Amino acid sequence: LPLTQGRNMFARNTLAIALLSTTPLMVQADTTFYGMYGLGYTDNEPLNESLNYKGEHIKDTIPVELAIGANIDSRWSIDLAAAYSPQQSDNRVDHEQYNLNGFYFLTEHQTRPYTGLTLSYEDLHVPDGIDKETLAYGGFVGVQHDFTQKFFTRFEGRLLETRSTNIEHATVMFELGYRFGGNSFIPSQSKSTMPPIAEKKEPVAKPQP
Length: 209
Description:
Blueprint: H1 3-26, E1 32-45, E2 64-71, E3 76-84, E4 94-105, E5 111-125, E6 131-146, E7 151-162, E8 168-180, H2 187-190
Antiparallel strand pairs: 1-2, 1-8, 2-3, 3-4, 4-5, 5-6, 6-7, 7-8
């Protein structure tokens, strides 16, 4: 196989092995599953200084993301996400990303920060430039807020480094999520900041002599 095809096969196989290794975690009986839809903004360094065939500066990416994941317990979760950039102008970088993400939540409150790691397979298209499939890796930080037992939001910052190019993807993403299935830990139920309500007791009448 040519060298480029061999690298692409290596990237696909690496991501496939990572996905298969997470399957036992995502099928536990006490796992709560969720789906998410997100919209973001990606700064693709150092492409900002490049020009397309019209002589225009290459602009950044506006990605849309769909994800499905699982809350393993009160602190850990994992998800699979697909990000793409639909109907962009011909002076914006276009990329498709397929991500495996692992999350660790720092608290167990209704609003809680988190951090995590990402392994990604990417199909990158630069106007009048690079067309490349590559493996990428990186990390992220964010905060999640649970509005109800079902609905939650995430605001997240990410940094991905591509394996076979010198391009970095710095992304800010806002996501809306919905939980379904399972009976495991639900963050919004776990630790209430409200004091317990004292049970009101009716006065007992004293018997008359």
